[in-house]
From TrEMBL:
The keyword Cell membrane does not apply. This is Formate dehydrogenase. It catalyses: formate + NAD(+) = CO2 + NADH. HAMAP family: Formate_dehydrogenase. Gene3D superfamilies: NAD(P)-binding Rossmann-like Domain (3.40.50.720). Belongs to the D-isomer specific 2-hydroxyacid dehydrogenase family. FDH subfamily. NAD(+) binds at residues 148, 202-203, 222, 257-261, 283, 309, 333-336, 381. It comes from Streptomyces wadayamensis. Catalyzes the NAD(+)-dependent oxidation of formate to carbon dioxide. Formate oxidation is the final step in the methanol oxidation pathway in methylotrophic microorganisms. Has a role in the detoxification of exogenous formate in non-methylotrophic organisms. Its main location: cytoplasm. Substrate binds at I123, N147. It is an enzyme of class 1 (oxidoreductase).
Amino acid sequence: MAKIVCVLYPDPVTGFPPQYARTSLPALDGYPGGQTLPTPEGLDFTPGELVGSVSGELGLREFLESQGHTLVVTSDKEGPDSELDRELADADVVISQPFWPAYLTAERIARAPKLKLALTAGIGSDHVDLDAAIARGITVAEVTYSNSISVAEHAVMQILALVRNYLPSHKIAAEGGWNIADCVSHAYDLEGMDVGVIAAGRIGQAVLRRLKPFGVRLHYTDKRRLPREVEEELGLTFHASAQELARNIDVVSIHAPLHPETQNLFDEKLLATMRPGSYIVNTARAQIVDRDAIVRALESGQLAGYAGDVWYPQPAPADHPWRTMPHNGMTPHISGTTLTAQARYAAGTREILEDWLKGTPIREEYLIVDGGRLAGTGAASYTAGEKAEEEN
């Protein structure tokens, strides 16, 4: 029998379960490109319920315990005396989320001699030391595409919120004011602007497609150029580097993975080359930008706004400067964990566990490392540092 340790974010502060705004979810036929949605043999939750927090347990407890397996669910993941560290010694499976990552470092993997499967409930497995997993023969899997569109929608929302100065305007209304001049003194139309994405994988392309109807000029950079028919369909301008793109846009949305080439990519030097009054939205990884350089650029006016939902560290401390810097639209790391997305990534987690526990092959598109070897196109992309679409 297996022991599964599942690390999820804490329950709502107002208590669990919450009241749900909607009683059903729209039905999807599949993902763009033809990949099918998760197909587990069963589900022990109603899609649309909060299953991504501790009490939701990804809907796994009945399924696992009915077969004699042990499930431990916790949000306590930091420090040597955390519940995660205490449970690692005899864990066969660790499930984590990009929004509340349980970092499976080489040191933690060394303290988990029985660990055979590291499973990401969602997409983005960069919290797992892949080299250590390969050396130990550990399988690393994630629920590919389950929340890519969720992240894309969040990025588009934040672009509009920044450019239209929505958040300060809403605050004025909520506090009883009617300060129209104050609202519009930092508000513009998105129409006619140059908007670019850093990395045009699944999420980046979804952002581009959703922005096209706004009448903007679309730009992108990626290690692999998109097919000509896609560029023509969307009216895309390709740039060979992020540096070239940054000089030619008004708004940039970041969807690249974090690796040595992208760490601190948007530093003081690069920010200075951007058009004065540009906007940045970052739903990829916080360390792709220089934290303090972003603050200074907002204070000087070089940037007109910065938004995103990724921080370093996560959760961010109360005194993190991004909480209080001017013209920010930051949220906690929530873009990929809507109730809609949870239904998909919880179902995909169940599907992966069903297959693994039966000893049958896990879907190739879910595999990053398969028992000690890189597996499938997803793993190749991680290795090349190009898995732009799999970061949330």
